[in-house]
Specification:
alpha/beta, eight-stranded mixed sheet, Rossmann fold, 208 residues
Amino acid sequence: MKKISTLVMGLLLLSGLAACSILPPVEPVTYYRLPATSLTLPAKLHSSPSLPMSLRINQPNADGLLAGARIVVLPDDNQLSVYQGVRWEAPAPILWRNNLMDTWAQTGKIQYLSSDTEALQVDLELGGTLRAFHTEYHAGQPKVHIQFDAQLIDPRSRRILASQRFSSQQVPASADAAAVVAAFGEAQQQLSQQLLTWLLSVKTTRDR
C-alpha cells in the first residue's frame, strides 16, 4: 500500500511539472509615463495676467485601444497593433488629462484647475474626444500623432461655448519604445500649448 501511495505521488509530481512546462513564460512589461514638459507661450499671452477663473479638465472620451494603457501603433493603413512589452502607466485618456493639468498648472495662466475626479463647482469645463494617440508608419518612418476634439462647456447649462480640433505630430529619433515615448512627450507639449492659447483667447474674447 505504501509503494502504491509513493507511486501515485510520483505520478502527480511529474504531472504537475509537465503542466508547468507548457505554460507560456511571463512577458516582462516596462511602464512609461508622458515626459514632463513646460510651455513657451506667445509673448502677448506670456505677459498677460492669469485668468481669475476655475476650470475643470475632464478625462477625454476615447474608443477601442485608445481607451486602454497599451501604446498603440499603426504599422500599415487601417491596421491597429500595440507595442509588445510596454504600457502606459495609466489608460491613455487619464494620462493625457493628468499631463495637461500638470503642464498648465506650471504656467499659472488659469487661477484654479481641477479634474473630473473632484466634484467641485467651476466656471468652465474642458471636455472632448481623444481621436488619436498613437504612432503611425509612413514609408517605414514612425510618427507620433495626437488629435483632440476640444469642447469648452458651461457646467450650469451644459452648453458648448466653443469647440475646435487640435492635432500635433512628432517624428521619434528611432523606432525604440523609449524614443517613441519621448516623441509622445514633444507632441503632447505642442498640443497643450495650442489648446491653452485657444482657451485663453476664447475666454478673453467672451469677457470683452
